[in-house]
# Entry
Amino acid sequence: MYRRLSTIPAAAAALTTAFCLTACATTQDSAQSAEQTTTRSETAPITLTLMRHAESAGNASGLIDTSVPGPGITDKGRQEAQAAADRFSGQDFDGVYASSMVRTQQTAEYMAHDVSEPVEVLPGLREIEAGQYEGQPEATAQSTYLATPVSWLQGHRDDRIPGSIDGNEFDQRFDDAVEQIFDSGDTHPIAFAHGGSIMIWTLMNVNNPDPSLLKTNPLRNTGYVVITGTPDTGWTLVDWNGTPIAH
# Structure
């Protein structure tokens, strides 16, 4: 089951003058206490797992495919998705998210089933658009499609993938999706996204980035990272695909 994440407006309670002054004071004190509790909860750090989708038909073709909604996962991908759910569902995720691309939603289904949560679709989690490199061999991606995102990690966020987006646009889009996850109130969510978007956004935003991980431990299908923090205080990388990260 999929549903798009929406903001639930807070209900305002009307005060009545029929209460005596003591009752009003008690009510106000209680309301202030509740508000303070909510504020503390809203600023508490969360642990967010970002997992790459299982093998897609695009991966199997060996061609770069960043189209939306894009191809679904293969038979091998379904096995990978089930294996990931079997391995990680015991972590009691309290929210399951996916991008607007079919392959993440299909991968997320397995985890969502095991943890009894719906799949929330957040378009901002989508893959970095390949632009003029769309449909080219994945084997060339490091020197073509991903060359510009790597430059974003070096501070050149205004650089633009030919026919696509720049680093500022990508970062804002993914930031917005992560903030929606944070605002949901979940404390231990998992979001299914894409290899490029996960790796680049993580290394652009954590306070302990290690860009060498792009080469030494790139995220394969169902690879993952774990970060902790908040949108306001920042994020810390604690696990890169099974490797604990010093922080």
Q: What stands out?
A: DSSP finds eight helices and eight strands in the chain. Confidence is low (pLDDT under 50) at residues 1-40. The chain has one domain: 44-244. Residues 21-43 form the longest helix (23 residues).
